[in-house]
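Open question from group meeting: does this chain pack into something compact, or does most of it stay loose? Before anyone orders reagents, we agreed to write out a predicted structure and look at it together. Recording both the input and the output here so the notebook holds the full record.
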Amino acid sequence: MVSVNKMIIIGNLGSEPEMRFTPNGRPVTSFSVATNWRYTTPEGERREETEWFTVVAWGKLAEQCNQFLTKGRLVYVEGRLRTHSWEGQDGQKRSRNEIVADRVSFLDRQAVGSLREGQVEEGETGELKPDDIPF
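Structure tokens returned:
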């Protein structure tokens, strides 16, 4: 049976990217992205809700995210959802959902660009095309 695990978010970086390396030297960068949902209640009151996502990028994409992304930047992130579980120092089981990115695109004017896992091309403009936006 076929299955799909695909996450797409557009939001602002809530923190500076944090790069580290695995014991075998592979780079991994993580950062948070906030998405907003605005709506009006039946009583006419305007409200806004913010949802936070943890994004993890590996390899060359991790290096590029660490180099080019900064807090507040508007980004498009595409990847898969992964649940990361661990046991805390207090013995309690903990878990969090992460998006493992395979594509990150800059959407603000500071530096329009598109990064994909394992793909680095000289002179790539990173301009978004209509086919790049999933909706």
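Observations to bring back to the group:
The first helix runs from residue 59 to 68.
The radius of gyration is 17 Å.
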